[in-house]
Amino acid sequence: MPYRRLPNTDTARIRAMRIALRKGKELPPQKLAFSSKTALRLEKFLPQFENCIRSYRQSLASQTVKGKDYNEVLKKARIYLIHFIRVMNMAVFRGDLPDKTRAYYGLATNESTVPSLNTENELMSWGRRIIEGEEFRIRKGGNPITNPTIAVVKVRFENYLEAWNHHNNLLNKTFGCIEKNNSLRQEADDIILHLWNEVECSHSSLPEKIRKIKNEDYGIVYFYRKNERAKAFQMEAQKEIC
Fold first, then answer.
1. Is the dihedral of CA 110, 114, 119, 122 positive or negative?
2. In the chain, N or C: fewer CB atoms in 10 Å?
């Protein structure tokens, strides 16, 4: 007798439960190979599991699509901040602005390097410092830096913050679906295991070949071991010859 293999993917789990649920609707309770209690449990659980899997896939798809937009907005915000700092440093280098100008932005007055903006935290931190520093410097009577102006930089930065919030909401939703799905998968596996045990027990008195066919009709999946597969092929070949 080949061995059965429980589903190991969400698609396979749903397919196994759908087959069993369909049998439960086709046959009266007294002819069904699993109990009414299992049928009720299955009928209640399957829609919940399907909806959760569907929500996860939709959330993941949305995250993938929106992720491209997010990366583009992030890239723009980083470029504008870098260009602003470079323009400011060039003005200092030319003597148009004093060295102490860098202090408004939290930068070392004796260095012209652009700070690292590679991570989200760095981009947010330096973005706020640069914008607040330039606005404060202008209020103190300083001439605005142009090309880009801080107003343009601020728009790009605020677009990034909005995109970041939306991106993180999508991530949190996806992670929430993953956690819920993990919990539901355990219940799905328990239902399928209990269901298949009941079906096999109901058909245990039948001859092996008929028993296998009856069980498969309820969605149970069987696999032959390597030696059993070869033996089964030989038997089928002999039947064809006869």
1. positive
2. C
Task: Give the bridge partners for 4, in sequence order.
Answer: 222
Rounded Cα–Cα distance for residues 6 and 49 (Å): 17
Q: How far apart are CA 105 and CA 165, in angstroms?
A: 25
Report CA dihedral (84, 89, 94, 98) to the nearest 10 degrees: 110
Per the model's pLDDT, the better-predicted residue between 193 and 170 turns out to be 193
**Contact, 65 vs 123, CB < 8 A?**
no
Closest CA to 144 of 122, 153, 125: 153
Q: What confidence score (pLDDT) does residue 225 get?
A: 75
Report the candidate in 137, 152, 148 with the shortest Cα–Cα distance to residue 102: 137
pLDDT in tens, 182-227: 999 999 999 999 999 999 999 999 998 899 999 999 999 998 777 6
For residues 24-39, one letter each, b for 16 or more C-beta atoms within 10 angstroms of the residue's C-beta and e for the rest, the string is: beeeeeeebbbeeebb
Q: 45-79: per-residue pLDDT in tens? A: 999 999 999 999 998 888 888 888 999 999 999 99
